[in-house]
Amino acid sequence: MEPDAAVLAWLHDSDPALRWKVERDLLDAPAAQWEATRARVAREGFGAQLLARQDEDGQFAGGAHFPAGFDFGGDETGQPWTATSWSLMSLREWGVDATALRPDTAGLLERNARWEYDDLPFWDGEVDACINAFTLANGAWLGADVAGIRDWFVAHRLSDGGWNCEWVEGSTRSSFHSTLNSVIGILDDERRTGGTPDLHAARRGAEEYLLQRRLLYRLSTGEKHPWADHLGYPFRHRYSALRALDHFRAAALHDGTPPDARLADAIERVRATRDPDGTWHQAFPPRGREWFPVDVPAGEPSRWLTFFALRVLRWWDTHA
């Protein structure tokens, strides 16, 4: 079922951070139109609000992955989403040009930001695959030297094909969540910088890990992971079939390959969660401190989720 005009108009009546994507990927607008809309992200709406939160030292909320002064033993609900890595991720995903941040943000972070884990330098990454994936993509966007992180991903890929953020605690099996975050970051770096042949091969091998499981199922038992259907925006670090499909769409377009047939079950899961009005609703909004909300509460129709779902289904129905 194609989106009707009312749904497309509703999607287009959104913050510029989403509107330019709707124009480019659903409305087939001329490049001049969606590029002009994307340029507005840094000047108004979500993008401008978040840019205004950047500290003079280049960080956000005074910390690398957690805000300054965060009480790790306290009773705060959920992960806080205000620190540097999360804020950069949002700006990058919304299409903000790197020049809209403070001048030489990459250099400012090199000098001023340290990871909460062992006080490690920001652009060197740390031991967590998801954090390193965010940092790799953010560094490629900002022009930082992230060669060490590229090498880290090649060296730390597990024998079953993917990555697990808990490898440092002894985990030897890959994780859906860690692997998806990793391939997303690697692809972003590859699109911006060309990446490296070894890292490209690692990405393709890790994508095979997910494809063997059809994005949904445990390979050992065939049981469907309960969180595969957990639709929630912002995605941030969380796995869902929709987010994984969005990556495989981007990877196929980048690599010049058709959709893999093993995505079919996940596609049908996304199709089945469409509401009668042609939208997808927010089901699992992330908990935790944030600068400001960018999507609706649970139970309400989500422009962001509806956009991602329609974009994935359009790609599949056109190319599969």
UniProtKB/TrEMBL annotation:
InterPro entries: Terpenoid_cyclase/PrenylTrfase. It comes from the Bacteria. This is Squalene cyclase. It comes from Microbacterium enclense.
